[in-house]
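Moderator note: this is an archived Q&A kept for reference. The question asked for a predicted structure of one protein chain; the sequence and the answer are reproduced below.
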Amino acid sequence: MIADYLVCPECGQGLESCGDVLTCPSCRQRFPVREGVPSFADPSAYWGEIGYQEMRQTNEAAIAGGWENAIREIEPLLPNRSVSYVADNNRADWRLVLPSMANWRVLDLGAGWGTLTFALAPFCREIMALEGVWERARFVEIRRSQSGMSNVSVIHADACRPPLATGVFDLTVVNGLLEWVALRNTGGDPRDVQRDFLARLGRLLRPGGWLYVGIENRIGEASFRGAVDHSGLPYTMLLPRAMARWHVRRKSPEYRAQADSRYRTYTYSFWGYRRLLREAGFELVDAYWVHPSYNLPRHLIPLDSRHAAAFYLHSQAYGRSMERLLLGTARRMLVRMGAARLLASNFCFVGQRI
């Protein structure tokens, strides 16, 4: 299954398999297969919710005692201190806004722990988890092996240079990834990098194929309340780009540690995302206000319906303090005026290849 879609990331030619090595017959590049996972990226590079050593120990514990037990052991280190961050299939409930996936081939980019991959697997024909961090790709492979899901495959590769054939996928999932791609690729303007990244994904899709994006709203309510941005600082999403770059160079140790410390984790307003998708070759089909976040999509409110957003806010108002009731009333008034696209802190977008 997986070998049919892999190509050389350098020249785009199909690869030949020989034992634990994949070889490009054109440019002779060689790519190892580590523990059953084709590897096209640097295995020493690491990013994750937990430290490198903790991730390695988690993988060893998963091999010894099962991936679910391993996750419970590190629960205090996970976001929201919750196993559901890794194991909750409801994190992919946004699938319900798409057509039936029964015959689809799906690509989950930046698969992380594999939560969305395994949540979607029962509903599609095939799904590929692409993860750029080796230890995380290794965890997904361990989980795949233990779950016995034969329609799941894993590759270790750079999401910005996917070693995949064109026109083979029906859906590409980009959840919490688009904002980061320019930080990994410092060769151009961040918006141009993001646009080219999306355009490249469009070429992986079949004509009429679908794109799912989960991401923050640059000008949403959470930004005004001081939510920490990807720079590790509050309010930088609201600043003009030049001012944000200056600010993070002065204040953010994370960015100062980068070879290029400019502010590159761009997010946009609803209208900014719509333009970006259009320029990349996608038609925006549906857009949703997702609550509490795109990583925990408990509620999806269509942004083209003022009534749906107002009803949702009304349903959340009971049993709160007077201050929050007044805030809720103000929100509902703004929504009735058509401001749901401004208030939403998190979006999910469904696009289709033009």
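Archived answer notes: The mean pLDDT is 88.
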